[in-house]
Structure formats: structure tokens, C-alpha cells
Amino acid sequence: MIYEVFRQERKGQPFQHAGSLDAPDPAFAETYAKEFYGRRGESEALWVVRRDAILEIEEFVDELNRNYHRVDGYSLKEKLREARERAGTAAPGDR
Amino acid sequence: MNAQVQQLLEIADDELILGWRDSEWTGIAPFLEEDVAFSSIAQNEIGHARALYELAARGLGTTADELAFDRSPDEYRCAPFVELRLPEWERTIARHYLYETADAIRLERLKQSDDPEIAGLVAKIDREEAYHRIHAQMWFDRLQNEPRFTAALEELWLLAQALVGDDFRLQFAERTGLSTESGSEPQTLERGVHTDELTELWEEMTMVRRSQPAGTRW
What we know:
Chain A is of the alpha+beta class.
């Protein structure tokens, strides 16, 4: 059984993925997680989760092509250039 | 040698020799996670031995290294129980479980020592031993109904009793659930008696150190 381990370095900080381990049951998982990620004062807390309990999402279908929702869907540079052309001003670097 | 130094040496020798035996599993444990965990336990035990030797060495006017490596095998004070080479995992885990149970009993007592140095060191050691006990218990819980494991416990129990003094054997038996009834049964091998396996271990353990003249600075 594979378990994923998440580690919180300091109180209040977000948990971040630390790694995974193989253990036959939750008691072994806890012991190994403490041994690998917790016993040198490097963690404030750990989350140990069975990998198959994690809902994994890998596909992000954008059926309506609403790319303006995304930062990379809207080219600010292009819009800026067009605006400058209309106003007759040069980019700061060209002056 | 006073009784206190003698006792430090007994525990240090147990820890060094058992740590050495447990380290024989490095690289060949049943799976990687356990390989790392068990190797770490082995290294802790050797670390505890070092700290205990240092304390004993001050009382004896010598050094931890000299105590660990420069005595002859018959001068070691470990119990024969820790000397055995156990190439079977179920016997190794049975020994680990019995050893940690006995070790907890003697550390509890030494934490109450009038000597603040001993009490302090033992309290520090015990914080690491807590991990070892959790590790031993989880394996015990998993294997307790496996015939090979229970047979190994029965087999090693007699020798394990020598780890603690007479006055603590009943308590040791209660914690393990194993019987101390002896009567006509064979007696344990007490400290001071050694197996041939200690000599073999000692030959290998001290090989590098003996390859250079005594007093060499490494």
C-alpha cells in the first residue's frame, strides 16, 4: 500500500508534499512517516494519506474555449502595443 | 570497578553488540522502508553505546573507543542473547521485541538514578528508545499470530531473561506475557558467558582498528 506524506515545516504554514512510502498498514505508515520525515525536528506536523484515497484530476477540458479566464489567454503585451500605436507613444524602452 | 560503572558497561555492551547485529540487515531487510527504519535503530543503539561508554570511561580512566574495541571478547559484559547472528527476519523481530521490552524496564529504573549524569543521559536515550518500542510493537501486533514468530519468541525468551537482573524477571515476563516458570527447565545464559558468535563478531568489528598499532590516531 502506497501512502503519500505531506509535511508542515512550521505552524501555520501550508502542508507540502514530502514524498511517498510503502507500508502494509496505517501503523507501519505512521512509524515510517515519523522516521523519514519527522524525527529530526524538520516537521511540525505530517499528513499521511493512502494514495488511493486521493482524488486525482489530470484533465482540464475547456469546451467553451474561455481562455480569457486564464492569465495566459490574454496577451497584455499585444494589447499594450496596439494601445500605444493608437496613442502615438513609444514603449518606455524605445524612448 | 564499582557497581554503577559495571552496570553502564553491561548496557553499553548490549547496545553495541545488538546494534552491530541489527546493522547486518542494512541493504537486505524485507523492504526498503524497513531497511531504512531498522538501520536507523541499529545506528541509534551504537550511538547509545558510545554515550554510555564515555560515561563509564571517565570512571575508569580510559576512552570510549578503548572500551568498545580494545577489550578481548571475554571481557565484554553483554548478554549472550544479543550476540546471536539471526539471519531470519522473524527471529530478529522477536529479539528486537524482547530486547526493547527489557531495555524499557532497566531505563525506567536508571532514570531514577541519584547520579544526575546517568539520569540525564538515560532520559535522553529513552526519547529515542520510544521510537524503537513503537517499531517493535507494530511488528509484534502484525506477527503475533504467525507460528514462525511465536516459535521464535518462545525460543529466544529463555536467553532474553539475562538482560535484566533476577529481581526484574517477573516484571519482564508480565510485560511480554511469557512464562518465567523454571523448575527443571533449562536456565538462561547469564552475562559473562559468551557464545562463539561473539568471537566471530568481534574479529570483524575490530578488524580495521587492529590493523594499525595500538594508539594510532585515526
